[in-house]
Specification:
2 helices; five-stranded antiparallel sheet; 216 residues
Length: 216
Amino acid sequence: MTAPPETGASDGFRRLWPTLMLDRELPGHEQANEVLSEFILDLDAKRGDMTTDYLGGNILTQKHPAIEWLRECINKTVIDYFAHLGMDYELKWSLQGWANINRLGDYHDTHNHPHSYLSGTYYVSNPDTPPSAGRRNDLRPGCITFYDPRGAVNMAAIKGDPYIEPEHTVRPKSGQILLWPSFLHHFVHPNLSREPRISVSYNVVLNWSDDYLPEQ
């Protein structure tokens, strides 16, 4: 007679293929954001294509107190992300960053970030938007939406199913930092305010080592 299977805390249940996102507010961001905003707007005055030419330079290498503060915060965020995943071995990476200034009507099409491991955005300012625009009541101005990477996983979802919603929308606030796997497709909704939305996006690019190879 076969013995019954042992049951633990999970009772045999296992969650497969999770997609981990980190969403937090950086302490001390109020003073830093004032300086960051001034610095980024000054850069934008010198370069009109700063938002669209994201490979044109790496803002996170600038020798500026506010940028150095942000770079340290991003690295701390990355360390916490890997620790949460249980990656207890040494990882080395470089950061590639660029500033975004989204003015009235600006948005970013659905995209992901190839050639990097993690990606994220830090919000310097995200203005309050009008309560409505035209006759549409389903607009999400100033938001960022992420899409389930498992295509059509919601097609057979029923009430109570965790996969009903194929997307996750965040309405960012100033001082908020997001971090997610670079493969995750996302869409930046239009800015419907006459005030600019200022952010710094970044990629976490791993410095390759054979120690990263998984055992299979």
